[in-house]
Amino acid sequence: MSRDCYRYFSGLALVAALMLGAAAPASPPDTVPVAAQAACVTDPATPKRQFRGMWIASVANIDWPSRTGLTAAAQQAEYRGWLDLAKQRRMNGVVVQIRPAADAFWPSTYEPWSQWLTGTQGGNPGYDPMAFMVAEAHARNLEFHAWFNPYRVATHTDLTKLAASHPARKNPGWAVAYNGQLYYNPGIPAVRAFVQTAMMDAVNRYDIDAVHWDDYFYPYPGSGGGFPDQTTYAQYGAGFSTITDWRRNNVNLLVQEMSAKIRAAKPWVKLGVSPFGIWRNAGTDPLGSRTTGLQSYDAIYADTRRWVKQGWIDYIAPQIYWQIGHPAADYAELVRWWSETVTGTTVQLLVGQATYRAGASGQDAAWQDPAELTDHLTLNRAYPRILGDIHFSAKDVRADRIGAVSRVTTDHYRRPALAPAGVGGAAPAAPNLTSAVRGSGGVTVNWQRGAAGSTASYAVYRLPGDGSVDPCDLADASNLLGTVRASGSTGTFTDATAAAGSTYRYLVTALDRLHHESPASNARVVTGTGGTFSVIVDNTTTGGFTAAATWGTSSYLTARYGTNYRFAEPQAVSDPAWFSATLPAAGSYRVEVWYPADPGYNSATPHLVATANGTVTVSVDQRSGGGQWRVLGTYDFAAGTRQVVGVSRWTSTQGYVVADAVRITRL
């Protein structure tokens, strides 16, 4: 597929597979089962479950702290700023580097303070950064993934430059100089045991959500020959016919043993790995990807596919740092391969995104296109096993060169999202919503913790209008206001975006540490002064619908809205039928469509939503799910009369495209 063709179809046909399903029956407001949401049709652009994170790198002061020598207060202010940025971009997790080079961002009993805090390895920063970082992340209900580098000792080769207390100085035989850096030797069993103990110190002492490793196991090949561990192989390599198999086994043991230690100590703490994006090429191994790049299996001895298949890790976030169509490592091919690799396992798949490339000087021309990064996430929707993304790194998220990050936020992070549910654990009991009161700052909602289960956080939902609650109203993030970390037996949330003239229903759910969600609470209705604005525009509404003569009229199917509907053959032309409406005020509106379904209709009918931030395309499978309102999504619109929703003929799939009716509701 050509790149230009991909640009178009990524916004249309790739999303169609996610639009199937039938709405569940309505339930009373006090019994809204989350499980029933599985049958709901949801908006793929507002997924309810999605990990959204960014790496905050400390080595070489890449992100935080911005430089050494900052006061504790200045360091803390900078860190809060990164968390506020994550919340602004509607992320729900941060991956923070807290052991960049056999050192520590906490008062470790095993390794010295990191030099990237004070400028001097072993220098006390005057506070406990780890305790501070975890507490601040959780106060914003962001997951805190503690990022460790298992084997790197220093970015130089001089042992005497290390702190006197450094384990590598006390055990010089553990260290290997290679390619201008110092590493612990992964082949020494005592080293493997020690690095696990050093990392488990943080796991045991702090309330982290995950242990995270990047792609540094054995070092990448350098110009000075192979990694000098032949003597170690001679000592410990019995039973292995090649040194490469022995090296892979050393890394496998690190992963397997660390996984067992974490699960024994804190089963809710995940082990995640973000490896190099290519395991092996298909030209080398038929199980590999259709790529021709460096192979992590062979170059750094990371058998990542095995870790997934064995279930030794909880998530994998390959660094797929190439553009769509890259000749050696095509992003589209790699997300396909990784998706197939995790299929049939319990391992969650996230994607490491090269946000640092977007708009950066010296990068390929593809990365100068503001759509490159957002196209990655659009492509991800074609693979349901992809459960989110991590952006490298924080400073590039903040820089937002060429508006690439803003595009991602607009196109994919429109609403908050819950983190994907992990293996194990159980949903807590539903909370009791005690009050919802409108005040000068918005609507304040209060609740009590449920009587059973372990509650770690809450999700707050707002539905327009009053009446009963359909479980499908909670199926995607269209109605999700935000999340709150649990503290004590009660909780509170203020909805500052509530319109004074609108009536709303509020509900709350509880989640355990692994994000299993309870049934919804009872609903509380807050009335508005002028009622909720909602308008239905039919294809027969005077002044509300326009279409060329190429669009036919039919009343054949009884599941239509009103007396008839319009239809047209698909064709690569700009000939949309438009629904227009007068919106009373700028704000957030839910957009729904009605159509009569037929097996012969189009499987990827493009719907154009003309938002205040640009036109968004959503594909709808009109072969099924008709005869009811289907949510396209929640969007920001300006006030006034304008074309709001168009139904386009421009699709490569076969079957009539249908334009029948739309409903627009202010939230």
TrEMBL record:
A Pfam entry, by short name: Golvesin_C
Domain Golvesin/Xly CBD-like, chain residue ranges per copy: 535-666
Key words, A-Z: Signal
Residues of the signal peptide: 1-26
Positions of the Glycosyl hydrolase-like domain: 51-369
InterPro entries recorded: CBD-like_Golvesin-Xly, Divisome_Glycosyl_Hydrolase, GH, GHL10, Ig-like_fold
PANTHER family: GLYCOSYL HYDROLASE DIGH
Keyword Cell membrane tagged: no
Protein name according to UniProt: N-acetylmuramoyl-L-alanine amidase
Superkingdom, taxonomy of origin: Bacteria
Species lineage: Bacteria, Bacillati, Actinomycetota, Actinomycetes, Micromonosporales
